[in-house]
Write a structure and sequence with these properties.
The complex is a heterodimer. Chain A is mainly α. Chain A has eleven helices and no strands. Chain B contains eleven helices and 14 strands. In chain B, helix 4 (126-136) crosses helix 5 (141-154). The longest helix of chain B is centred in the C-terminal third of the chain and has 23 residues, at 339-361. Classes of the chains: A mainly alpha, B alpha/beta. The A-B interface holds A 3-4, 6-8, 10-11, 14-15, 18-19, 90-92, 94-102, 106, 257, 260-263, 265-266 and B 31-32, 50, 76, 79, 82-86, 88, 104-105, 107-108, 110-112, 114, 116, 118-124, 128, 131-133, 135-138, 141, 164, 180.
Chain lengths: 268, 362
């Protein structure tokens, strides 16, 4: 299986590097986004927002962690569906389906390169934030960071697979995905803390795993909280991960069966 | 008799035979869900059936051609065998593995060669593409590189192996599809129109390669779905003609010619002048005239196509009619009907019979 995972990684890396301009332009855009957040932070000033006190009071640090982790979440959420759609439109899906490997495994391996890039961007945000914009990460608890990161990836991997199942059946789901992503970004507190939202929206936001993931990651990175101190977010993320992964694998398997039955697997 | 999942009776399922490589038993495929009323009555509207109670057996080492007009159900059947589609009823065994119950195991035994040239990664080289699919199809690491090089060499792609796939011609892409289908050295190779959209030279090369490959590995089983009857005639031990989702006839090409009565018939093409308004004898098998039709050409002449008995009675009758009415025969070409013509005749008869049955039913 490791060889197969590496083959997917190598394939996608080779394809990505063959589009050199797009590859490097993407990273330049990421760094420019950090600049934007820095100047918004300068405008707001330190300790200007009491709702940020829980995370150390620095807007740049707050927003940067939010953007970095959301990048990984978006890869999980969107990448699987994108891979399916791309394989349908480029015509590689049928050849892929002839593999003796379960399709959900192929789906995860197809996104390894995107995960690698996302993890790289996560690190890039933090490093550039620290060196260029004076972000302090000295007190970060790396154990907690890794646990929250892994659980976030697993949880949204399940959600992404469930999304890929929907793409297999309904084919074009971009509009629905845009709606979901926008709602998730607003409710979970990527750029602003959820505490500024009305109470009923906060309750709704609590049902989204990204809210716990962002809260846990910020406290781990900016306040150095240990896994024991983060038991609440970690516990909830674990439950979310199990539920979403089961939902994703079962849902995707069902979608493939429906596609095989009605002959729509390779239609787009 | 067993009852299939959709409520329709299918032929009795037989135990697997060791000499049989691919066994298709009572397979039907219907697109879309069956309405509840149809389930309870066992009837259906009949428009959505792509396959209806198809049964066939392909022996180890045999090459069978699957022929039929567009929409006949060839590709649907190939996809059901290849596990890409789930049959609505019946069962398919590949090397004694039920493709519906154990699709992952069944895929290890099969290689699928499609005509879709888009199905590769265009930014990768030929070698990178084949290595990737080798890993995807679980070819053991040690064997994979050697197998890729062997196939590139055998198909004449070695020199282009490092070139990106997008720079390949259609013929080269088709060779890549063949190479991919054979990567696992499968027991059963399924070819779905392997020479579609190729020029005659590339077509001939690929056919020769398939023939040589069969000679080198006589134990392998091949199923070839094609619209090109010459291809099936050249390559296959046996052909199966499908129309409207059903098997119309199966056998060797000589058997089919004989069975449909064409062995004792001759095809004549008479180029004539001054036959406008001539009364030609009607088709009458008792008089030796099986089929007769006339087509005008641009230069004032006409071409009479005549299928007649081999004794020459029908031909004499038509020639006498033309001459008696002042016409002139400029040229006469005679021979046996091609397999294309036999095929068209079989399909036409089938469609006439189906139309008559539908009329009776309505």
């Amino acid at each position: 299986m490791l060889r197969l995972a590496y083959s997917f990684f190598r394939r996608d890396a080779a394809i990505a590097f063959s589009y050199r301009f797009a590859f490097f332009a993407q990273f330049t855009g990421n760094i420019l986004l950090l600049g934007l957040l820095y100047y918004v932070g300068q405008m707001i000033g330190p300790r200007a927002l009491p709702s940020l006190d829980r995370y150390g009071g620095n807007f740049l640090a707050f927003a940067l962690v939010g953007v970095a982790l959301t990048d990984t979440v978006m890869v999980s959420l969107i990448s699987f569906g994108q891979q399916v759609r791309e394989a349908q439109t480029t015509g590689t899906l049928e050849a892929t389906l002839m593999s003796p490997v379960p399709l959900w495994v192929i789906l995860i391996f197809s996104s390894l390169w995107n995960y690698f890039l996302s993890a790289f961007r996560f690190a890039l945000y933090l490093v550039v934030g620290a060196f260029l914009y004076g972000l302090h990460l000295g007190q970060a608890h790396m154990g907690s960071v890794l646990i929250i990161f892994a659980l976030t990836v697993l949880c949204f991997m399940g959600a992404g697979m469930a999304w890929a199942a929907i793409v297999l059946v309904i084919k074009r789901g971009e509009a629905l995905m845009t709606l979901i992503v926008t709602a998730v970004l607003v409710l979970s507190g990527v750029i602003f803390p959820p505490s500024v939202l009305p109470g009923w929206l906060q309750s709704l936001g609590a049902l989204i795993p990204l809210t716990d993931a962002l809260d846990g990651m910020r406290i781990a990175l900016l306040q150095g909280a240990s896994p024991a101190e983060l038991a609440g977010p970690i516990g909830r993320l674990t439950v979310f991960s199990i539920v979403f992964l089961l939902l994703g694998v079962i849902g995707f398997d069902q979608a493939v069966r429906i596609g095989r039955r009605n002959g729509s697997l390779t239609q787009y | 008799m067993t009852t299939a999942r959709n409520g329709n009776p299918s032929s009795a399922l037989q135990p697997p035979d060791a000499a049989v490589s691919v066994l298709v038993e009572g397979v039907s495929k219907r697109y879309g869900k069956m309405r509840q009323a149809e389930k309870s009555t066992g009837r259906d509207v009949g428009r959505m059936w792509a396959l209806r109670d198809v049964s066939l057996a392909v022996k180890k080492g045999e090459m069978v051609g699957l022929l039929g007009p567009n929409g006949a159900g060839k590709t649907t059947l190939m996809k059901c065998i290849a596990t890409l589609l789930e049959a609505s009823a019946g069962r398919i065994l590949v090397e004694n593995i039920d493709v519906a119950r154990e699709p992952l195991q069944a895929r290890k035994k099969m290689g699928l060669v499609t005509c879709d040239e888009r199905s590769f990664y265009w930014r990768l080289s030929a070698r990178e593409n084949l290595r990737f699919f080798g890993a995807l199809y679980r070819v053991p690491r040690r064997a994979a590189d050697g197998r890729v090089e062997e196939l590139l060499e055998a198909l004449g792609l070695s020199e282009a192996a490092e070139r990106p796939y997008h720079s390949f011609s259609t013929g080269m892409r088709q060779k890549m599809a063949i190479a991919r289908g054979l990567l696992t050295d499968p027991e059963v190779v399924l070819y779905d129109e392997p020479t579609r959209s190729l020029d005659p030279v590339s077509t001939q090369r690929i056919r020769e390669w398939i023939r040589e490959s069969r000679a080198r590995h006589p134990e392998k089983t091949h199923i070839l779905a094609t619209n090109q009857l010459t291809e099936a005639e050249q390559l296959c031990d046996r052909v199966i003609i499908v129309n409207g989702g059903r098997i119309v006839v199966q056998g060797t090409v000589p058997e089919i010619r004989e069975r449909f009565g064409e062995a004792d018939q001759s095809l004549h093409r008479l180029v004539c002048e001054g036959v406008e308004g001539c009364d030609l004898p009607p088709a009458d098998p008792d008089a030796g005239v099986w089929e007769i039709s006339m087509e005008r050409t641009g230069d004032g002449a006409a071409v009479i196509r005549l299928v007649a008995d081999q004794r020459g009675e029908g031909l004499s009758l038509v020639l006498a009619a033309i001459l008696r009415q002042g016409g002139r025969v400029l040229r006469c070409e005679s021979g046996q009907a091609s397999f294309d013509e036999v095929f068209c005749r079989i399909i036409a008869r089938e469609q006439t019979a189906a139309g008559a049955a539908a009329e009776v039913a309505s």
